[in-house]
Amino acid sequence: MPxxxxxxxxxxxxxxxxxxxxxxxxxxxxAAADLTGATRILDVGTGxxxxxLMAAQRTAGATIEAVExxxxxxxxxxxxxxxxxxxxxxRVHAQSLQEFAATFPxxxxxxxxxxxxxRNSLRSPDAARTTARHTAPDTLSxxxxxxxxxxxxxPAGRLTVLLxxxxxxxxxxxxxxxxxxxxxxxxxxxxxxTKPLRHITAFGRQQHPCQQTTLPxxxxxxxxxxxxxxxxxQDFYLAF
Length: 240
Hints:
By secondary structure, the protein is of the alpha/beta class. It has 8 helices and 10 strands.
């Protein structure tokens, strides 16, 4: 059974009420997204509130909106936010992204999302976990996410998304159809000799060659965190 909480250096994430727990790739997304100059940030599908909390720690004064469809998870995210040092800067909305869009929020500098991504795999018997892990028709399609970002990003704003490589290829097609294009791509690997596990891609309205970097979590052939991983997560993980 997963630990009911995850302790970071500056905040605690309780996760017993959420289908999807704190995971390494989401932590990398929260630490790697370029939030330079961002004053309004949106976390789509916040779950435990992890990405919103990481964004708050990394920015000085930014307002962060966090949207979560699952009411129980949204409640736990709100509790995690309230117990953090940044409760006055993060607002959790217990609603779908479509419902949030209908409120016509002011535009954002940056949108973060670790979206549902198992398009064709078997559904989990846990309904909440299925909602968190699968794409439409369950909850949110790639096209809807890209369309929302196109409508609610500032002209120079960015959407940063975490997906497995095959699913990212699908998302890039849907994003391009709305006028959003990959700017940077971080390729996450278990180690330098293994195949990519996830792509963390930032999208914007500019169209130019995508800059790609690679991040191994562990060193080759050893259960030791890589120097690059340690550097990226040093402000968050107690072990560093």
